[in-house]
Amino acid sequence: MVAAAEEEEEEEEEGESAEMPAAAAQHCNGFLPGKEAAGRGERAAGPGAGVEPRLSRRRLAVLAVFSCYSLVNAFQWIQYSILSSVFSVFYRVSFPEIDWLSMVYMVAYVPLILPATWLLDARGLRLTALLGAGLNAAGAWIKCASVAPGRYPLTLAAQAVCAVAQVFILGLPSRIASVWFGPTEVSTACAVAVLGNQLGIAIGFLLPPVLVPNTPDDINLMAHNISIMFYGTAMVSTLLFFLTGAVFEEKPKHPPSQSQAVLQAMPPEDYSYKQSIINLFKNIPFVLLLISYGIMTGAFYSVSTLLNQMIVTHYEGEEVNAGRIGLTLVVAGMVGSIICGLWLDYTKTYKQTTLIVYILSFIGMLVFTFTLDLGYLIIVFITGGVLGFFMTGYLPLGFEFAVEITYPESEGTSSGLLNASAQIFGIAFTLIQGKLTTDYSPRAGNLFLCAWIFVGVILTALIKSDLRRHNVNSGIMNLDVKAVPVDSPVESESTTLKIQSDL
């Protein structure tokens, strides 16, 4: 009751502040001369008419808690692979078996993504968030029981539980951003939500090598250090599970944008999960994005998983610096994510930004490949940072671009399919790059990724930009050319009306 009262009070306080940006936007985004009355009449008659978008302060708490438990889940993904040489000795298994502790995240995602996205659409955001946070904590506690040299199967099972938790986490950033945040902040909110996962990877690169130094001559000390890492992770993830239960609500009292008002006004019986999947696969621009996103993100997963092996091959005994290079890669990507999110909110140039970042990621991968074996770690730090800035910065771009070109389909479904594509490519790339790295050299494996990223550049260039959500938020007769990409001209009145009738 207290939380509900606080929420209502916060929304009333923000009512005026939310109306001001809307009024300003209407002032800047004028209607065609002579069409103002008609445009307003058409909007009034459409779905969600009469609903005044407002922003809730709770949205910041929801975003913060989600970002934190996404962080812990990503930390648990990378904590084994960045210590592959340590865990290989501790569990007395081969490097490929340690790689599977990372790849289980990718393997679990593919068969479970459709049930997870169905659950998100059928049972809602709160239940999905609680499942993600709860399973993440459960997997962390199981790991605490696996700290013994003969318990590799148990630690693999624990990692599998964390992998299932990831299925209920990775598809939420665009959903949280769309449901809780306004049109001028939705891309930035999505970038911050993705940022939590990236920060977890960054901490996963940095902290484990410090907590668990390689002590092959003292297995008892190694077990003690591993237990400290596992128990600490379990306690933090449990705290975040309880915070998720306290903070998460299904949706704010008032829709934050016109596009959300339209969706919330649709009768539930008009929605079909099966038809939504069919619609997405009939959407050619989305299919192209699905493949290109899978290539880029799969390449990032592969590089992250095999980074320790690549660095140690050329710089023996540098496990700690391998973690620091991974940290540099991801932190640079976090900066890239925020910059890209802010840029999208300001310009709405989704295709151009996505294509430019993709091309620069390709160039960064080439530079990283040919400088890795020069014998200078400082160069690897620099090239790794440049690569991470663009490759990791691409992640929220793909989510937001997908939501724009697939509106009014569910954000969770489109994001889930993108992540499923990333996992499939990630598994294939990790296995093939790992084989090439072991049998030949890290350069051979990296060149394999370069070839595929170049294919992704071509596919991205072929995507037709159709910013459906942006058009609904801007108004039918909106003529703000600054907010519309050159290759996505404002649609004609008849086309826009057809989209509204389809909704």
Report on the structure:
With 503 residues, the chain is an all-alpha fold. The chain has helices spanning 2-28, 36-45, 58-78, 84-91, 95-123, 125-144, 152-167, 172-180, 186-211, 219-247, 258-265, 273-282, 284-314, 319-347, 350-371, 377-391, 394-406, 411-439, 442-461, 468-474, 493-502. The two termini are 35 Å apart. Mean pLDDT is 78; it is low at 1-45 and 476-503.
Summarize the structure.
The protein contains 21 helices and no strands.
Question: Can you give keywords for this protein?
Answer:
mainly alpha; globular
* Number of alpha- plus pi-helical segments: 21
Low-confidence stretches: 1-45, 476-503
Characterize the main sheet: none
| Total beta strands | 0
**Secondary-structure element sequence?**
HHHHHHHHHHHHHHHHHHHHH
| Nearest-integer average pLDDT | 78
Describe the oligomeric state of these chains in a short phrase. Answer: single chain
Which of globular, elongated, flat, extended, rod-shaped describes the shape? globular
Distance between the termini: 35 Å
Radius of gyration over C-alpha positions, nearest whole angstrom: 23 Å
Q: Which structural category do the helix and sheet elements fall into?
A: mainly alpha
Helix content: over 70%
Q: Beta fraction of the residues?
A: under 5%
What is the strand and helix layout of this fold?
Elements: H1 2-28, H2 36-45, H3 58-78, H4 84-91, H5 95-123, H6 125-144, H7 152-167, H8 172-180, H9 186-211, H10 219-247, H11 258-265, H12 273-282, H13 284-314, H14 319-347, H15 350-371, H16 377-391, H17 394-406, H18 411-439, H19 442-461, H20 468-474, H21 493-502
